Amino acid sequence: MTGTDGHAEDHGRVYQARGDQHITEHHHYGGDRAEHGGPDSVRRPAVGRCPVALRDRSEVMERLRESVRMERGGQVYVLYGMGGSGKTAVACALFEEVTGNQGRVGLWVNAADRASLRAGMLAVAADRGARDAELLAARNGLRPAADLVWRHLDRSAEPWLLVLDNADEPEILRDGNWLRTSPRGTVLVTTRRAAARWWPGAELQHIGVLPREDAALVLRDLAPHSGTAEQAARVADRLGRLPLALTLAGGFLSHQVIDPWTMDAYGEQLDGDERVRLIDRGADILSPADPRHLVGLTWQLTLDAFEARGLPEAAALLRLLARFAAEPLPLALLDHTGIGAVLPRARTETALRALLDQSLSELVEAAGTRCVQSHGILLDSVSAATAADLVPALDATAVRLLDAAVPAVPDAGPHEPRLRLLVPHALALLRHAGEPSAADALAVATRLAVALHRTGDYLSAWETARNAADLGQRHLGADHRTVLAARSRAGRALFRLGRYAEAEAALSAVRGAQERLFGAGDPDTADSGYGLQLVLANLGRREESVALLRDTVAARRSALGPAHPLTLRARASLLETLPAADVATEEGGALLTLPSECARHLGPDHTVTLGARHNHAWALYLLGRFDEADREIRQVAEAYARRFGPEYPVVLAARQLHSRTRAALGHMDEAIALMADVAERRARGLGPEHPFTAASRRLLDAYRSGLRRP
After folding, report:
1. Same domain, 278 and 374
2. Do residues 652 and 681 touch, judged by C-beta distance below 8 A?
């Protein structure tokens, strides 16, 4: 580690930023990997199926078609209306037309939450030609993600239509500057938020309920033999002519085979059977115009029919789905023994098929994963109508299923889009869960944040941990162990995002509370201390950092044992942070044998073992043992490249150290070639002006100037 001269060292690297601020990039070996998987699919709508017939939308469709046909760029259209009004159906119909008939590229992004929006937009950038290194840097927070996306959209060789679906929190778009215009394409937004201040310069189009005649046609499209046009119109009136409610009603009518229902019989049930009214099932009192009320009238009749046919599991499954978010939920999550507390696992398939048949749910694909999804208004309605005595078992089961889907011990790995799919469901559980399940739900959400962090998705990790802590605190209180652990994780993510002042404040506050409540030797206190010492090192407070790291090592050794991965990892950090003279004497010289100790306890390919070897090579370099350092860092760099890919930051850090050892041994041509490659890859991924890129170029210039060991 160098002082304040601003040139880059390989492991804990200092970069001159603004004034006397210094940025150190510490590589955190428990947690990050390159992206090897493909991006989320954005070339098709994230809906199960587009409507067969789109009723009463001809005017808005023609206006949208005309705009796309004229190939005018720089247009933003906003479709707004209440939930269930068919905004997504209009967007889907336009998407299918322009991609099928006009050869225009269609790009579909779920904008319901920050994590989904960012992942989808980065997938758009990948589709438009962004390289893995650029995407990795954006995901790691090392370059502005929105700038990357729109640069590639502006450079697109083909015209495009970009749909931002479910943008019901437009502040998300504004905060990240995600909504822009481009001469190469048209943007179409669907939202419930109509205020013009959110959509400056956009053309707004209201999507309301259907006219009576068209609403009746929707019912007859789905159930043509159930009644006359006038009978269908009367049912449509009772359902408020809301497209979602009409679709659910038509799905019910079309699937009654043995004893088919007529439109009149269905209407009589809507009017006369008090069992279908949400307020009679312990729900919040809703106005007749509330879309949850209208949808509730339809699904309750369907579930009553399931009960009559001996399929109560369908109702149980729908209530379970309503504990999650109205986003794609991986089907594998339902295939778990834990579901047995709500419905027999062997009946899950039958129950799901019943929901699909009645249009209560649909199958979609997201992030290369088969998922089930239900409309948000439907899930809100079901949740509101769920009897209070059923809620604890539903919450506990939902937490159990999500717990099984999140890695038990998150490790370094490639970018995993399927993890991001779980984020809205983890937060939805925390919104729904009562006090008995809140702590367990928060623990799962925090572990999910750790898993996201360790794939390099630091923004999603921070947002997940922060939001989870806020939600959990409502039931558990600010001083609850699980709430503090979530806030500690949020602080760790802030550090990785380079927001050091915020990270120091957050981690100092959390560690202080943990020390007061649980003691200095508690594992949670030690975890926050480990994160805080990284921040202090980056702020140039080296002595404080080293003292805190030594305390962390002692606490972990006492609480977890000397062979625990977290203990070994903290000791490996000493190899990086201690001055060379101290490394040789620390622990009676035993610290220099740490890599072999890690390999013995964890295996040679364990993340902690590789990190210890990297740090060990750095220590050997500082001690002037260049031959040993050269052999070790070459092997580490090769192992990193196989595991993480050639563009990942820790791979480049290892190669930079390898260039130093080659230069120290007099192999300047090899050192220059290695350093040129590192500088080129950093320029490609981070941009030519990034401090990391500049530091690599300074080292390369020093080599070329004949300095053997800069």
Report:
1. yes
2. yes
* Co-location of 64 and 118 in the same domain: yes
pLDDT the model gives residue 292: 63
Tens digit of pLDDT for each residue in 457-510? 889 999 999 999 999 999 999 999 999 999 999 999 999 888 999 999 999 999
Q: Provide the CATH number for the domain around residue 70.
A: 3.40.50.300
Please report, for residues 280, 418, 450, 674, the alpha-carbon distance to residue 429 in angstroms, rounded to integers and kept in the order given: 25, 18, 18, 49
Same domain (yes/no): 66, 196: yes
For residue 659, give its domain range. 586-704
Contact assessment for residue 655 and residue 693, using Cβ atoms and an 8 Å cutoff: no
**43 burial level (CB within 10 Å; 0-12, 13-18, 19+):** middle
- The whole-model pTM stands at 0.83
Find the range with the poorest average confidence among 22-26, 116-120, 184-188, 621-625: 22-26
Q: In Å, what is the CA distance from 703 to each residue of 1, 350, 671, 709?
A: 19, 68, 8, 8
140 SS3 class? coil
Residues 6+ apart with CB under 8 A from 446: 465, 468, 482, 485, 486, 489
281 and 389 both lie in a single domain: yes
User: Whats the size of the chain, residue-wise?
Assistant: 710
Asked whether residue 174 falls in the same domain as residue 68, the answer is yes
Share of the chain above pLDDT 90, in %: 55
Same domain, 188 and 134: yes
* Contact yes or no for 478/442 (Cβ under 8 A): no
Residue-wise pLDDT tens digits, 551-592 = 999 999 999 999 999 999 999 999 999 988 899 888 888 899
Number of domains in the chain: 4
| One domain, residues 433 and 316 | no
Burial of residue 461, with CB atoms counted within 10 A of its CB: 0-12 exposed, 13-18 middle, 19 or more buried = buried
Query: What is the rounded distance in angstroms from the CA atom of residue 584 to the CA atom of residue 572?
Result: 13
Q: Is the dihedral of CA 496, 655, 545, 540 positive or negative?
A: negative
DSSP state string for 106-139: EEEEE-SSHHHHHHHHHHHHHHTT--HHHHHHHH
The predicted structure's pLDDT at residue 52 = 58
Span 106-132, pLDDT tens digits: 999 999 988 889 999 999 999 999 998
